[in-house]
Amino acid sequence: MDAFTPAQTTELVSRIGAKKARMRIDKMFINSFMGGALISFGCALALSTSSSPWFQTNAPGLIRTISAMVFPVGLIMVVLTGADLFTSYCMYSVVALLHRRCSFLDLLKTWVVSFFGNLAGALFFMAIIDGGTFETGAYRDEALAFAKIKCVTPQWHQIFLKGILCNWLVCMAVFLALSSREVISKIVSIWFPVMCFVGLGTDHVIANMYFIPLAIFLGAPKPLTTGYYIWKSMIPSLLGNIVGGGLFTGVVYWYLFLAGEEVEIHFDTQPLDTAVYEQGGPIEHQITATGAGTGYSNDHKERGAQAIPHSGNNGVSGFAKDFHARHFKKSNSASESSA
């Protein structure tokens, strides 16, 4: 199977969490702003798809499923462009903290900056897309009705519980995407868990930053106000997302695969300057009739670790170099060796 193992994927989650904790705050905020805007593309498309009065009356389950099928485009863009979402930080930062690669202050910094960056991006996108798209007819009616279903109808504890389920699935989508080695597999890995959380009507705190402010902007009737939204929807979904992503993915997979374990990833076996491309892993060195090699072997120290020109397999990867084990050492002095 051409994929990272669950243990290797959890190790990657830890390294990504540590790398993101080192990011400059201004860059983290801008990257989170982009994450909030990109996820809102999927929100707007799903909401537009749901604006079908006949289906809402006669086949509500079908139109919800169809809407759920188009929503993942937002998270796909987030993951493939490297944008930041608070909800994925719930997994990244928790695993890096438990693995002693970042501090609790680092975790708080990433959570606070990503949360408000996502909020700014979602509100910015909402202000743009509202320019006529959802102002009239069935589109406006659906925007108001959807916000009522999300914020007014359910009780506080129900939103909290749905928030747990939501980010459990979202972080599973990110986890599966990390385990995949090429783009199509990453897209498919994201698509189905995200489709599941949308189809089940769970609560994603960042997605709701688009859905509910849009309804407020369109003149939603009371009790749906900004204060009501923050207390009734934002806080419970935020706490639920933390539990779902941090506990049910972050803590669980850290305990299963990293607690007391040292996990190597394929490119850890190569020097940092020529870290082997993550899709291939350590490739046996072969010599063709013309003398051109096709890759690397584990005994690269004896044969030389330089990339072979024009081989089509130079073994240099931005991903592999950025996340090579030499960059990530645990803070505990007893574990100074690379993980």
Layout of helices and strands:
Layout: H1 6-21, H2 25-50, H3 53-58, H4 60-70, H5 73-81, H6 86-98, H7 104-129, H8 137-152, H9 156-179, H10 183-199, H11 205-217, H12 226-257, H13 300-303, H14 318-322
Describe this structure in words.
There is one protein chain. Helix content is 64%, strand content 0%. By secondary structure, the protein is an all-alpha fold. It has one domain (6-258): Glycerol uptake facilitator protein. InterPro entries: Aquaporin-like, For/NO2_transpt, For/NO2_transpt_CS. It is a multi-pass membrane protein.
Work out the helicity level.
Answer: 55-70%
- The helix/strand series, from N terminus to C terminus, equals HHHHHHHHHHHHHH
CATH topology group? Glycerol uptake facilitator protein
How many structural domains does the protein architecture include?
A: 1
Average predicted local confidence, pLDDT: 84
Major β-sheet annotation: none
- Rg to the nearest angstrom? 22 Å
CATH class: Mainly Alpha
Shape: elongated
CATH superfamily: Glycerol uptake facilitator protein
Report the portion of residues in β strands: under 5%
CATH architecture descriptor: Up-down Bundle
Number of helices: 14
Query: Pairing-aware structural class of the strands and helices?
Result: mainly alpha
The tally of beta strands, per DSSP, is: 0
- Distance between the first and last residues' Cα: 24 Å
The low-confidence runs, each spanning 5 or more residues with pLDDT under 50, are 275-317, 333-339
Transmembrane segments: 29-49, 69-98, 110-129, 159-178, 190-218, 238-258
Main location: membrane
GO molecular function: high-affinity secondary active nitrite transmembrane transporter activity
Protein name: Formate/nitrite transporter
